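Researcher: Hi, I'm a grad student and pretty new to this. My advisor asked me to get structures for two proteins we've been looking at. I'm not sure of the right format, so I'll just paste the first sequence and hope you can take it from there.
Model: That works fine. Here's the first sequence with its structure tokens right after it:
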Amino acid sequence: MAAKKDKKNAALPETPAAAPPAESFDMVFHAQLAHGSQTKQVRDFTNVKQLYESIAKAFNINTQEILYCTLNTHKIDMNRLLGGQIGLDDFLFAHIKGQTKTVKVLKDGPALGLTISDNGAGYAFIKKIREDSIMARCKNISVGDAILAIDGQDLTNCRHFEVARMLKEIAIGKEFTLLNVEPKQSFEQISARSNIASSGTVDAGAGKKTLRMKQNGTAECVPEPTDAIKKLVSKIDDKLEVDVGVRDLELSTTLYDLAADVLNKANKPKGYEPVVDFFAGRLDQVLSDFNFPDEFVLDVYELVQEYLNK
């Protein structure tokens, strides 16, 4: 596919202006520690790190103790993970560090069977373990475990794609050691969600909205995506898992936004063709760390193109 070869020569847009100051939000969200706690209020954040800092302050714990958050459930439900968007009525449950464990793994095949995700604040964790895989046969490894180290190499502040790449590059036949930490186990002493007042405010007739925390550190209150867009973003996330080994709904949403922006010709240089190469160039500019495979770039482009042409 020509996208990657040509994108280096693609006409890129001018360097964008500095990001505007973060918007100010007077919104209050309710939170609990997932293993059980009183309900606290958190506010004054525009990105995930600031959110974790607000939760840590509210519960008087260290920010580094928080592994990830789920929305509207205290269970380790990977379908309810906090990404870059929070509904104004969502209830936050913070999962904090529990027991640390060391596991030896023999990589006796090309694929370990892990899907890695990212909490956006310094920890990569296991989001999925494929049945009948190498990791499925390993005892003491579970969905929801954060990966702290591989063979003694500290992974704090490594992104999920970096961890996935390191695991993929381990030679077949080699035994390696994972240092994991599991979330603190829950107990059934959490107050009923129905007893908590709705958080945030939505203008009459505005419809359901979400607070979206962007990668540039700003946030905005936006209408909740349509079911069709949610389905499309989920398809992009499925391809991200297959081609890159990670799942990340916020990243998949960003990929959709970039493709839609290019296809709507909002930032297309006059007379520039083909659009797919311009999309590849935009990915190099905005998400250069990922080095997406050519096939993945084309698949995302075609998915969004098909949706917009309906």
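Researcher: Oh nice, that was easy. Here's the second one.
Model: And its structure:
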Amino acid sequence: MDFKKLKLKLPSLTFLRAKDTLGIDLGSTSLKAVQISGGRVVRWAYRELDVNLGSAEAPVGDRFAALTQMLSEFLAIEKKAPKTAAISVSGNSVIVRYVKLAKTSPEELKKTIQFEAEPYIPFSIPEVNLSFHILGDVMEDGQAKMETVLVAAKKDLIEQRLSVLSDVKLRPVVIDVDAFSLESAYELQRREGLESETVLMIHMGANVTTMIIMENGISKVVRDVFIAGNSVNKSLQRIFDCSFEEAEKLKRKGQILVTPDEKEATLAQDDQDSLQISNTIVTVMKDLVSELQRSIDFYLSQHPDRQVNRILLSGGCANINGITRYLSQELNMNVEIFDPFEGLVGDNLPDASLRPGFSVAMGLATRREGDS
């Protein structure tokens, strides 16, 4: 098996594979790892990087060295952890495209995928690993076609992550995309009776916010935008003339003042710092809301008979005080925090504040060797 090939999610999950997989999210600011077996969380790890390593200016090599050390320490304690792992990629070195291709067999498409993908991928094809997943048959202009997801990821991005696994003697069995890992985590939680809902999942990390719109459990829109936690930090640094580390502290202690009453109460207390922190975060959030609305509008333009039923927020930035109320107000729809551990059992599960950050790792933990 070529472990450098991207593996897209199976249409349905199964827990009947021979071995569990360690789902590992090598994040910009933290390491998340989780193993599940059936509906039980067997083990998990959360390790925060030094705050300064999470900045965009920090050397990438230093961050991956720290992640490798953290993972090695976790595995030294958890000696019974699986020796197989699933990891994922995201960002501007990853491209996801939904395209309609001439109908053919999956075997034939494998042979021609490099030529078929070239018009849709803005990278040199030799620089990337390609994968595809056929969603189904469609008719277009009287011709039978296949609705297909194309994924391309730059080889150096994948090799960085594979080197971490190699250094700790873990065998990679799946390399996924963050968005599809969120899809897997959602499938794990999808409640009975909600099979026909359309969901927007927002995973707001440090450097990237991943959006995925799923219709009946199948992805229809996937986007990565670079408005995320560090965007807030940079704005706070500029306004308060402080270090990146101090800006992170301001973000964590501050809150978004959503209602006029909250703003008036803060003014009455002459708490100028709290008001300024809120205004700074809101300035960044307005840009994010615009991107979220663009994604929703694009989906509705392609599927005018549908509507988005739910919005789920995950990632470390789900802990920004007031963010769900703010997004609910701006998007005119209730925004819920996504808990990927909901309904699962296990000893000493993560605190509620950590759980939204595990969404990618949990989706990866559902994967098994041999998935395609």
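Researcher: Is there anything I should tell my advisor about the second?
Model: You could mention this: The longest helix spans residues 272-302.
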